[in-house]
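Hi team,

As requested, here is the filled-out complex form for the coenzyme A run. I kept the field names the same as last time so the parser does not choke. Let me know if anything looks off before we queue the next batch.

— J.
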Amino acid sequence: MSFETLLLEKQDGIATVTLNRPNKRNAMNPRLHEEMTVALEQLRYDNEARVVVITGSGPAFCAGMDLKEFFSDLKSKPAEYDRITRLAVEWRGRTLRYFPKPTIAMINGFCFGGAFSIVEGCDLAIAAEEATFGLSEVNFKLFPGGSVSKSLANLLRPRDALWYGMTGRPFDGKRAAEIGFINVAVPLAKLREETMNVARELAGKDPFALKATKDGYRHSLEMTWDAAMSYSSAKEMELVVQQNDAWRTEGIGDFLKGKYRPGLESHDKVHKG
Ligand code: COA
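And here is what came back:
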């Protein structure tokens, strides 16, 4: 499938998916949801992609759902509206949440409404200080629908979720970092460099350990303590099989031989350069 709404590039183990409808501020139309579904499926099994970065072209990261092609044009097509809603919720939700590789949202500009679920679905988020975020739904008489309310409940403090959800006021990247919606905000001129530094750092770590880190955190959120302990124990055994016990023999083994200090540096970085 060739993409009409996305750009896909790969370099040094990092795949960058760029939402590419700059004239429409990268609003998510039905085609974009279909293409993101396919692109993420491809990257899931692509050995050249160890980390996935999602960003936008032009002045926007993503202006949310396409208000015309999704909400308006599909008004009298309930089955198609339902089909696209399911795709839209799935790729920004379960697919990103449990994606087998680390994901980073690189927020370069406007980020509204439905785009909050992309940011929340990614493991990490780095934004330009100059980016503009907003839960604009209330401004056009809607509410943060689809997966957005759940994304807010998952990530934001209650006061912030309701403040921004009810006022619809825009805020910048620095504020997004302050309220914990993103990890860090940097000047736009430095955004790509800073994001790629983080992506390269992750690409240099053990992929099974990274996946276990994601799974342990995300599944624990919805488990009782006892279930989480049991899951963690099973996960530890899974890692032994996947890595042929490398976390013990190499990871801990090389520390015990005095070869490196894991508190300060990564095993694979030290040993693979
Ligand atoms: N859905 C569909 N089209 C959108 C869109 C959206 N969410 N956001 C922007 N566009 C389109 C505009 O209709 C316009 O199309 P046109 O050139 O064919 O008329 C084009 O993108 C540029 O938008 P414009 O408003 O002229 O650009 P801007 O840079 O001045 O402002 C925004 C950008 C994002 C601030 C503004 O377009 C906006 O408020 N969009 C709605 C954002 C929103 O509420 N999203 C939540 C959806 S859940």
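Two things worth flagging: Residues 23-25, 27, 59, 63-68, 110, 112-114, 136-137 surround coenzyme A (CB under 6 Å). The two ends are 36 Å apart (CA to CA).

Thanks,
J.
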